[in-house]
Amino acid sequence: KQSKTSQIRTPIVCVLGHVDHGKTSLLDTIRGSSVVDTEAGAITQHIGATIVPIEAIARGNSSLAKMQFNIPGLLFIDTPGHHAFTTLRARGGSLADLAIVVVDINEGFKPQTIEALQILRNYKTPFVIAANKVDRIHGWRVHENESFATTFAKQNERVQGMLETKVYELVGKLSDLGFNSERFDRVRDFARNVGIVPTSALTGEGISDVLMMLIGLAQRYMTDNLALSVEGPGAGTVLEVKEERGLGTTLDVILYDGTLSVGDEIVVAGHNQILTTKVRSLLKPRPMSEILIEDKFERVKSVAAATGIKVAAPKLEGVIAGTPLRVVRGENRDEVIEKVMSEIEDIQVTIADEGIIIKADTIGALEALSKELDAQGIGVLKAEVGPVTRHDVIEAGTIKNPLYSAIIAFNTPMLPDAVDTLAESPQVSAFESGVIYQLIDDYVEWRDEKKR
Ligand code: GTP
Ligand code: MG
């Protein structure tokens, strides 16, 4: 059992990377390799998250078993896609304390990998790289669930050489992007160098090394951040807004601070408005085997940070993913409303006198896009969550400087009447993509073409 004095919050870990490079498999392996459901220290499934307690991580791992820990475990966010990361915003930064960037060692970096790295740099989030699918290297001999050092030592020279070459290709690419990196077992200073861990999510090789790196990063660099309370009024971030049969509109929330109980008054945010409501029920997913049972959820009375939980309450229809949730308890309601408002205003979208129009599907996505535009000196005149409307196109058409008559839509569609209006507005261009740097490249190319 953890002693009271040493108790700090569970670090939140987000998994990012290109489609099919193995994010979900990696989490499955982390879960599967250490699931023991009878005793304390069992891994628990929560809404949008999995908690892996430190005992479960250390079990059966001799190097970990020897280490001293002051974190209770790791909370992995399993929402698919890199997009989860940008939704997980909180307090003007990212809710994720740490990240794993998964890259297929045989394919190397892809657009979404690069985007993930840019986002992590902007948010200053420590991360490790899982250079995944090593078992696909020609001639690789599998040693299930072994550490990297053990399995690497048992490979022949040609395979070892091939792995080294592939790791150095990643090091080179990372250097182009401004990161110093090394194979993790050669890194001396983790504050300066990113560690690359060769892994196989399929065979479990190198997975214990990834966990050890994450724990090391959390213990060394994050203790202050993590010393948030596991008591007091709850604070969280809305991960998703979902319709559930029999429950109405519900919020999937990652609670990062304090407690949340049935009957609590909560403050949440919708489009241009703040809502207060009372928690009707708190719901946890039932174990996988019971998923077909009519009642998918188990009701609980109260939860403490950090965890994922589904919240049912009246009036949740207009709530936006990525916005904060706070409990009113102790301080008065107006103060809490004030806090939520300031957190939303805090969303770091710098609005310039001159610039383009940007749209995105969530607040976090808008923020991530805006940060990258800012870094490249591209002004933003208007930034909004939602699809591209006819009004946006008309507005872009009235922008005086023709180089800014553009709309960037990140992960959000164009409404049909916007498409029609765009067809009648030759001076306006709209760029759509699910990858930020693709959007920026396209815009810059269009702009530079116009300049000539
Ligand atoms: P998206 O959620 O679609 O972005 O993909 P993902 O990154 O979650 O990838 P996922 O875990 O679904 O893996 C994609 C495919 O790669 C699956 O068929 C996996 O079985 C396979 N795969 C993942 N990791 C490994 C690995 O280490 N080795 C091998 N050989 N296959 C792997
Ligand atoms: Mg996946």
**Number of DSSP-assigned strands:** 24
Q: What amount of the residues lies in strands?
A: 25-35%
Major sheet strand order: 2-3-4-1-7-8-10-9
Shape: globular
Number of helices: 14
Helix content: 25-40%
Residue windows where pLDDT falls under 50 for at least 5 positions: 1-6, 33-40
Radius of gyration: 23 Å
Separation, N- and C-terminal Cα atoms:
68 Å
The ligands bound in this entry are:
guanosine-5'-triphosphate, magnesium ion
Structural class: alpha/beta
- Sketch the major β-sheet: 8 strands, mixed
Mean pLDDT: 85
Describe the structure.
The chain has 452 residues and is of the alpha/beta class. 31% of the residues lie in helices and 27% in strands. The chain is built from 14 helices and 24 strands. The chain has an 8-stranded mixed β-sheet with strand order 2-3-4-1-7-8-10-9, sandwiched between helices. Helix 5 links the parallel strand 7 and strand 8. Helix 12 runs parallel beside helix 13. The longest helix has 20 residues. The radius of gyration is 23 Å and the shape is globular. The N terminus is likely disordered. It binds guanosine-5'-triphosphate and magnesium ion (MG). Magnesium ion binds next to helix 1.
Name its key features.
single chain, 452 residues, alpha/beta, eight-stranded mixed β-sheet, eight-stranded antiparallel β-sheet, 14 helices, 24 strands, globular, disordered N terminus, binds guanosine-5'-triphosphate, binds magnesium ion, initiation factor, translation initiation factor activity, protein biosynthesis, Probable translation initiation factor IF-2, GTP-binding
